[in-house]
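Input record (one chain):
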Amino acid sequence: MLSDRIIVILILVPIGTGLIVAGGWPLTAGLLVFALGAAVEFAALWRRTGVQVPAVLLCGGVAALILLRQLSGFDHAGLAVTALIVPKNLGYAGIAG
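The corresponding structure, as predicted from the sequence alone:
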């Protein structure tokens, strides 16, 4: 419904603007909330099609990358992505999980 979308916009735009203006950790916390919500919804969409998405790994990866950006500016992004991908690949191979 259009009225629902307008209400959401009227609520989220001031919050988002305030977080952007504040920057730093408040912005990071806001990004975490929105990105984790999106990750949970993404996993739920896949589950409805019968695909089992590891929601814990997905949410952990989202949180790790956002926090890594705040802490080190992606200086160690390759290591973080590898640490998130390898355990799941081991699970597909039947070695772990």
